[in-house]
Sequence to fold (226 residues):
Amino acid sequence: MKLTKVNYIPEPVCNYPILWNILDQFREKVVLAGGCFRSALDGTRLNDFDFFLHKDQDVLAVVDYVQGLLEARVKLGQDRLETKFSHFFGVHNSLPIQIIKSFRFENPESVIQRFDFHNSKKAVWRAKDHYYVINESNLFESDCKKKVLTYSGNGSGPMALLRALKFVNLGYKLSPQNLATILAECEEQRLQKHVDYLNSTDNDISKTKVEEYQEMIFKCNYYEEI
Fold:
């Protein structure tokens, strides 16, 4: 993981003054990360700018600040939406900015650690008088330019599979080895739900339930490994 101090405003942040304003106003409290940096390299359409926050109490302050910057262009229900995951600006004409509600970072590096593919692992953080670029590895730039998916194996399983499909539809290549790792995590999580259930009950398991598990195991050909 690399946290690099730079004396310039990185792309695509430099193209949008409102992004500088947010990073400057909330120094050390917000991180800009995700697909906006990928789109700058792979040529895909820019969807939005995702801001991740350090503390819960900063959410409304950032939302109010963005609302003020966009002024009359933003109307709740038209250009601004709120879900349980985020506040989203830009439904119609304003700049697509998303304030993430569902995740808080302990340190700026932890933001990109949660991303499941290396083509999304880049972020910008503003602290004191400097911008910092956060990279996990050199794979970010090469994967974006070559449109190759490399899975980081962070355990996201089913969600990673959905995102992989999205990237494949955008022209990215996914190797059999990376897909196999994702599918293995999906299967592990599916079986873990059954294990958790069995560990949480004191009741004897019925014959019907045993037969259900037997059928599930045989369908997956687990018996060939026994």
Q: What stands out?
A: The chain has a mean pLDDT of 83.
